[in-house]
Predict the 3D structure of the following.
Amino acid sequence: MGSLEKMEAFRKKLNDAPSGLCRDKTGDRRLSDLFDPDSFVCLDSSVISKPFSDSFDRAPVKGDGVTVGYGTIDGRLVFAASQDPDVYGGSMGKAHSMKIVKAIEWAVSSNAPFIGLFQSGGARIEEGVVALEGMSAVLSALGEAKGRIPLITGIMGACPGGLAIAAAKSDFIFMIRHASRLFVNSPSLSLLSESKPTSSEEIGTPDMHIKTGLASFIVDSEPECFAKMKELLAVLPMISDEGACAVRAAVVSDDANRTSDALDQMATESDIRQVLASKVFEEIADNRYVLRIGSEYGTDITVGLGRMDGILVGFIGNEEVRMSPQGVRKAAKFVRFCDDFLIPMVTVTHSDGFVLGVNTEISSVLEDAGILVEAFASACVPRVAILAGKAIGTAYLCMNSKMLGADTVYAWPTSEISVLSADAAAHILYREKIAGSEDPISERSRLVEDYRDQIAGAEVAAALGQVDELILPSATRPRVISALDVLLCAYPLTEA
């Protein structure tokens, strides 16, 4: 066949089967729903698996059950891989896996996020160790990409074994109720080792991964999943050849000097009501918008992304007065992410310490707390701490304290910074004095207040240099923005 005949044959082939995404294919339809219209460019669309044995009668399929490539989402360059469960259950042979590897590598070289839309039956059995070789290549590529580009995974159906490990390497995992399943062993095999009644429908579900902490976002449908992914991408930082850049929005629609009477009220009532970090963040963030992450796991600590005077900021704070291993683990992971992508951090501390009880003591809390301490101590991004209530003992140390390298520490005048709470400290220090008093109840109250004022007060910490400034709660937003403006002078700053 000559060149003319080849050109004519190729044109006819294009006319008969147009290139690009085909909405009749599940994997393609998902990409079409996620990406800007007509923006997705397919890579390796003609790749097929190679037969490794005559024992299985599976004809090679063009594309090998996964669509990979790049396009734009709300104008931003993004690479993606979307598995098609209708092609041999989305099973992963080597050719299938190497297509995913190529998309990840291209994403890294282009400084663009990578999104995996996973639904698979696992490694392709007939390929044996060769299929495992492909899976290993995917894990290796994700390991190289981790910390260099944002990694996002949508669990669109079943996601077993090695693919589940690949998903766990992501920065953010999206799961869909009644559809997503993420597990290391087949549920049917897991049930064989269970002594208590358990349904296979309970294994690997979003509800299970609320407990493991793997699910960053849990949604009700695919459209909601894609909408939330777009919301996340809208705030994730841009990456340059020199690495991540701090991000400032080109247009800011909120007043940098806006104050909040609600925060003054919160501080005034802090003796009878918990200071919620999520409420503080909403009051100080631009337009009161914060994208909370992992909100159903480790609920004692809240983490999220938002902006302050257009600057992209990571928020971490205490939602309850006692910190759990799960909350600490979530916070440590988020601190690492912020540090990897040059996202300044703002923390709110209001904690008495760690959750009491034997279950905490036999958990991984000590290791988790150590990881959080290390994450803060090694972070190189600007960090501003707000002591909004109690900052007691090891909880204070773990939550971005001055000793861990916080650049600026502000304290509300009602905050309490001490080794123990004033109640506990007074009981230990003044036990005999209280017992010998004619009115022990009144004497105890007086001594608790004396300890709070003379040892645990915010002014005492400020006098010792552990607090940079006492501020009115209502002025928290302008003071934090001012600090970030100064701290970011030494960092590359780009407009979103």
The chain is about 40% helix and 20% strand.
